[in-house]
């Protein structure tokens, strides 16, 4: 329930603070006084689009706060908990708008995006505008009214979820089908390339190994000759060799070390070098023993290297990268095979998903038809009370064709009406006059509002086009609605205003080139004066006061 609305520097309002109570609150005032300004400001606090021109001239920013009691609103408390926003039985929505057009929103003091203000606002307040009867002529709006009346939230969530899953699978299948056409030409090339590279069967890191082996085999004769030369220099020459010379030098050092022991480290180094030289000579000898000239193996290696180089050029890659290229195109080919299999699976999944969507949509459709019958009777009865004795309304729910499937289901909802005896049922927009359309809209809004879960309902001059006894019925309907929920009614009809549990008067004061809108709560005597003014204009007589007293519902 809306407890308090505070407005600063909005439009022609300098400062306004309204303390609101349960029941029906009537809001009246002279034409142009700004009766709807409070509603416009409240809409901003609920996340509606802002206009920098809404800031009061001369002020830096507008500031609107709305305080709600939510201790009996589980949906609101759950939403706040899910968004990790604190709540302690009350909730404050705040919106600021700067002269430069910058806008900020807050929930319980925490900055939030406007989308969150709007989402929470939809759970707190339902505003019925004076132009709602124009929207009433649209099929989507009619369907929305029926669903709101029936409380189809969960059914619609199921339908929407199944629809989105079906469309997602359908889009995946469509994408794969589109890609499959492109794959056909690529597949043949990839299959040929993979087969060719499979035949080569180049192992990972094989190319560097082949290069090293080829280098060794191609230089076999030179390796034999030079290794033998190195062995001769090291130890095998009978005339002079390094091992012989090193031994002679070591012998001299041993003798010198006996004369001067400071040469001991040098002796040790030479001895170590002698050992290493002998080991090196042994390793080189063994290498030479194993080294063989193998022209046949050289031919095999050259042939394989040639094949690798040929395929590398063919596929525009470096020879060392040919193995990785082979693995990549094998993966691509496997993906194509997988997608073919996935496409076959999707055919079944799409059909199953569509069937689940249609099942959920059918349940929603059947529920819509049941509630449409109930709503038909109530609205028709309300039309009779609103001086449309022969008026009849019929809500049709028909399954649309496949092109009409949507997250909202499979139905086309249409409001048909007959306003005169013998007149066939026809679409609302083609039959009703402006006044009739206004009364039909009012009847629908009042009845559907009783089923809407929002705790506060606002009717902004929805009684336009009605008067006299009809207006009295409208007032009684709104007061009856106020007995179970909070209702704010902006009206120009005394028959409606007199039914309020409380009454606010809107006035506009102009002085010193400054204009301000004010709202004040009226006591019983002031209410009588205001109802008399609505009845007879500025000239209030005892007769108009007496009439006003009859209209005032205590």
UniProtKB/TrEMBL annotation:
Q: Does the keyword Nucleotide-binding apply?
A: yes
Q: Which InterPro entries match?
A: DNA_recomb/repair_RecN, P-loop_NTPase, RecF/RecN/SMC_N
Among Gene3D superfamilies, the record links this protein to: P-loop containing nucleotide triphosphate hydrolases
Q: Which CDD domains match?
A: ABC_RecN
Keyword Transcription in annotation: no
Query: Which keywords does this chain's UniProt record carry?
Result: ATP-binding, Coiled coil, DNA damage, DNA repair, Nucleotide-binding
**What is the name attached to this protein's record?**
DNA repair protein RecN
